[in-house]
Amino acid sequence: MSNSVLTATTTVKTLSLADWLVIADTLNYERLWAFDKFNQHSSSETYDLSALTLKDWEEIAELIGCDTYWANRRYRAHTVGSKSSR
To answer: What is the reported pTM?
Structure first.
C-alpha cells in the first residue's frame, strides 16, 4: 500500500463571503470590512455579483450591518456596470 498526500490550495481569491465574515468576527473587525475584502479579492469568474437581485443585496446588507441604501447602491453599481460591459 502506498501513502498518498492530499493537498489543497487556498488563496484569497477562493475565499467566500462567509469565510471573510468568520475572519472578521475572529479578529473583532467590522463585518463591512469582510465584504470589502471579499469584493476586493474575489474572482469575478467564481462570484458573479451582477447576478444578485436587490433582495440578495438587502440580505447581505443585513448580514454585515448595513442599511437598504447601501444595498441599493451596490445593486445598481453591479447591475449597471455589468449591463454596460455586455
So the answer is: 0.74
